[in-house]
Amino acid sequence: MEHVFILIAILLASLFFSKSAEAGDLLPPKTPKPSSDEVLKILKNGNKRFYTGKSIYPNTDTARMLLANSENQKEHAYATIVSCSDSRVPVELILDAGIMDIFVVRIAGNICHNNEIGTIEYGLTYVHTPLLVILGHTQCGAITAVTHALQGKEQKLAKNIPHLVDNIIPPVKKTFERHPDLSGEEIIPYAIEENIWHVIETVFMRSPVVRHFVADGKVKVVGAMYDLATGKIEWFPFDKTDEILAKVEASPDKEAEAFAS
Ligand SMILES: [Zn+2]
Predict the structure, then answer these.
(1) Are 91 and 83 in contact (CB under 8 A)?
(2) Which of 18, 57, 181, 238 has the greatest number of beta carbons closer than 10 A?
(3) Which residues contact 261 (CB under 8 A, 6 or more apart)?
(4) Ligand 1 center to residue 13 CA distance, Å?
(5) Beta-carbon neighbour count of residue 217 at 10 Å?
(6) What is the pLDDT of residues 201-252, one digit of tens each?
(7) Is residue 109 within 8 Å of residue 117, measured between CB atoms?
(8) Ramachandran class of 109: left when φ > 0, alpha when ψ lies in -120 to 50, beta otherwise
(9) How many C-beta neighbours within 10 Å does residue 3 have?
């Protein structure tokens, strides 16, 4: 199994990232990374320092900046995080993390399509992060806009926004089905959470590489929700991720090819 994965990783390297990643990046870091559970603890502690007003702003000085110029990030960065672009969710700040600590994908609605999933695969394969976080947030404007559109409050969208919206419609529709009793703004928090689970399912469906890392115990995937009102992140249980992975593994529609043809 191990050699199959290495082969996949090498092919990914040559096909996708030949200019940005060296073959040496595929080797494990010289200093072993913390485990997935230990990384989760690091993130929880960082967020706690933030929301209690005790941030220490680690790894933000000139020495760290220079270290980032001379060392490979795979020796240091410990988590890959997908978050919304919302200016109210500055990822490093809310986790009290610094330079070369976290590998971040930011996109409206924290959705995952081709480029985002490719970036995640890069984070796991080359930056060797043992934890992948899909981080949603309360009051997400992207999810709110799609919910309003599906409630009939249509508005004209700028040229490229519909592509973004397409990824958010399925989880919002599912939320309507699951909560027929809710209407108006009440349903939005549920849609925001459903979107997190939908993103995790999409990543598993589309990425055999991510599935492989998780099945091998090298990576854990966690859903989380940042609360704008308190600064606190709610970390969802790994059990739910495991359920989604099992569902995807049983699906005949999952992507089977780990590398581009
Ligand atoms: Zn948002």
Answers:
(1) yes
(2) 238
(3) none
(4) 32
(5) 10
(6) 999 999 999 999 999 999 999 999 999 999 999 999 999 999 999 999 999 9
(7) no
(8) left
(9) 7
Residue 15's pLDDT band (cuts 50, 70, 90): very low
Angstrom distance (rounded) from CA 71 to CA 169 = 42
CA–centroid distance, 85 to ligand 1, in Å, is: 6
Distance CA 79, CA 71 (A): 17
Instruction: Tell me if residue 4 falls in helix, strand or coil.
Output: helix
Q: Under 8 Å CB-to-CB from 98, ≥6 apart: which residues?
A: 57, 58, 59, 60, 64, 92
Judge if pTM exceeds 0.85: yes
Domain boundaries of the chain, sorted by first residue:
2-249
Reported as a single tens digit per residue, the pLDDT across 114-139 is 999 999 999 999 999 999 999 999 99
Give CA–CA dist 90/183, Å, rounded: 30
Instruction: Tell the burial category of 49 from Cβ atoms under 10 Å away from its Cβ (0-12, 13-18, 19+).
Output: middle
The CATH class that applies to domain 2-249 reads alpha beta
Report the alpha-carbon angle 135-31-259, nearest 5: 55
CB 116 within 8 Å of CB 107: yes
Quote the tokens at residue 133.
């976080």
Going from the Cα of 69 to the center of ligand 1, the distance in angstroms, rounded, reads 31
What is the C-alpha to C-alpha distance for residues 248 and 205, in angstroms, rounded to an integer?
A: 6
Provide the token pair at 70: 């001379």
Q: Which residues surround ligand 1, an ion (CB under 5 A)?
A: 84, 86, 140, 142
Q: How far is CA 166 from CA 149, 174, 224, in A?
A: 12, 14, 22
